[in-house]
Amino acid sequence: MVDVSSVAQTLISGIMMGALYSLMAFGLQIVYGVMRIINVAHAVLMVFSIYLTYFLFETYSIDPFLSIAITLPFMFLIGWGIQRFIVNRVVTAPMVTSLLLMFGVGQVIESLIAYYWTSNFKSVTPSYGATSILLAGLSFPIVRVLGFVVSIVLLILLDVLIVKTKTGKAIRATAQDREAAQAMGIDINRVFLISFSIAIATVAPAGAVTAMIYAFYPTLHYMFTPKLFCICVLGGLGSIRGVFAGAMILGIVEAMTGAFLTLEWAPVVAYGLLITILVVRPRGLFGKA
What we know:
Largest sheet: 2 strands, antiparallel
Helix content: over 70%
Number of strands: 2
Oligomer: single chain
Low-confidence stretches: none
Structural class: mainly alpha
Shape: globular
Number of helices: 12
Mean pLDDT: 90
Strand content: under 5%
């Protein structure tokens, strides 16, 4: 007989994991949607934000969630610099050029992380890190609950930015038709700069939450990069809401598979689902037909 409480607890775990995945993937989706660049360095930059969170926590005892107020604008500036001085030179080049360039950027950042912080495993352990809220017999880890809230807030803010603001309208116009947007007087270089900077800034909250859940090391990004691309393709390339939906699906599928089969089967089932959806709907769940 199936234990209803176990199923409910596993579902909650999957939703919380999906929220973390969505935090990681928002920026990756923005860059592709606007610039048609596959930023393979995205997860590396997230790992860098993890180490920034660690530095602020260990050196100045700043709570990881509060440190987002520092790491977010800092990562925005990092994104601005990378786009302005590196990516901007290949934004109109074939996709493979930008892909290889960002791979190189990622390797440089990974090496700098290892040089400064070493390759030893590290962790961020605030006083509430292992605390959970019990509700109706179910456990809700505080860190994951707060991460879920941060994910929802970020999704809403990104949605408002893109749908309601003048800058957002310029971003949408550029994503839909770069040449037409430029003909209408939109400065697409400025749009690229803003979009890329915002995308990299989104790794700050993802890094803060991840730092409290996982022991981390410079090559941690290899664990997440395939999953982030899976989420973006699953939800539909270019769709911010699709990222959230795709992340939730992946998180729940992984949790259910790990609970009722084994953890080894989780990626098999998850990527099998991806293949199935792409066969039925090649542009993903929320991609435009």
